[in-house]
Amino acid sequence: MSIVSFSFLYAQTNDTPVPPPLTVPWEIVEVNDRPGPVPYPAVKHNDVMWHVTIWRDLDLREKRNHALYFPTEPQGSFRSLGQVILDAIDFNNPNNENALPIYVDEYCNIKRDRSDIKNVLNNSRTIAQYDPDSGEPTGEISIDEPFTAAQIMYYRLKEVWFFDKNRGELSVRILEIEPFFEYEKEGAIGASDDDAVSLLARRRLGHIKYDELRPYLAQQQYYTPKNTALQLTFDDILTWKRYFSSYIIAEGNLQNNREIQEYITNPRDQRLESERIMSEIRNRESEIWDY
User: Fold this and answer.
1) 3-class DSSP state of 259
2) Rounded to whole angstroms, how far apart are CA atoms 266 and 117?
3) Residue 215's domain spans which residues?
4) Does residue 220 form part of some domain?
5) H or E stretch covering 273
6) Smallest Cα–Cα separation from 122: which of 156, 86, 155?
7) Angle of helix 210-217 relative to helix 81-89, nearest 10 degrees?
8) 139: phi > 0 → left, psi -120 to 50 → alpha, else beta; which?
9) Residue 71 counted as domain residue
10) According to the model, what pLDDT value does residue 263 have?
11) What pLDDT was estimated at residue 57?
12) How many CA atoms lie within 13 A of 177 on its CB side?
């Protein structure tokens, strides 16, 4: 009789709901309860008087972008932008039909195969093996190290700036985003092992259609350093407020959309050219009004 009573009590204990962790003394309204991203205002082709395509790089090392990079591992309800993207891709579940697709081309026409995505997210390298007694090399083994969100250090954005005469304002839409992993690649200079150095290399994850990414961004709260009570999402920050630091690397042109670094070699002058292009885009609005 006592054994049955014990089993009953044990079952009751397991069925008891686990309360949420205590962090603040009020009820928390999660952002993932929101219906989704705020839709764009409708734009007709005939209302677009002018538009230009630009590419820009977003470096997560810059202080203003730190809230997009940290935390390097999920911390409570907060995740980094890279972690949101990797979780949305869900490459560990190849049968997930609702996973975020990755495209091979920047026009987002050709989807990358799920098995190919998993290969991109793994870094294969060889490690030398040594005899524990003599210290003599015995061979090499190959290992696969999966990339993590902490290794995403850059994002490349493709966006369109345009003037909508219906609303009478200059607007911007992000078309696609491309994450870049940065990792140490073993290289050697010279014949001696003492000359071996670690080289920083980059690997492209692939092109992501921004409109397909927005529903995931709208479900993730953005950590606001100076006011954590603000219920802002990554979609609010990237799409509407554009609270990030970046620089233009190319403007749409007939020379195969050549990048600034192809005709300007000095890094300082490249930044000045980037600022000049952005200034011309903003000045175009006043020029259209004058017209």
Assistant:
1) strand
2) 35
3) 44-114+153-180+203-290
4) yes
5) helix 267-290
6) 86
7) 110
8) left
9) yes
10) 93
11) 97
12) 21
Count of structural domains within the chain = 1
User: Which amino acid makes up residue 141?
Assistant: I
Q: Please report whether residue 198 resides in a domain.
A: no
- Cα 215 to Cα 40, 200, 218, 219, 266: the distances in Å are 13, 33, 5, 7, 39
Residue 288 pLDDT: 79
d(CA 157, CA 260): 15
* Cis amide leading into 94 (omega within 30): no
Is residue 239, in this structure, part of any structural domain at all? yes
Burial of 152 (0-12, 13-18, 19+ CB in 10 A): buried
Both tokens assigned to 4: 């049955």
**Residues of the chain scoring pLDDT < 50:** 1-12, 188-193, 196
Q: Using CA atoms, how far apart are residues 51 and 93, in angstroms rounded to an integer?
A: 40
Per DSSP, the three-state class of 29 is coil
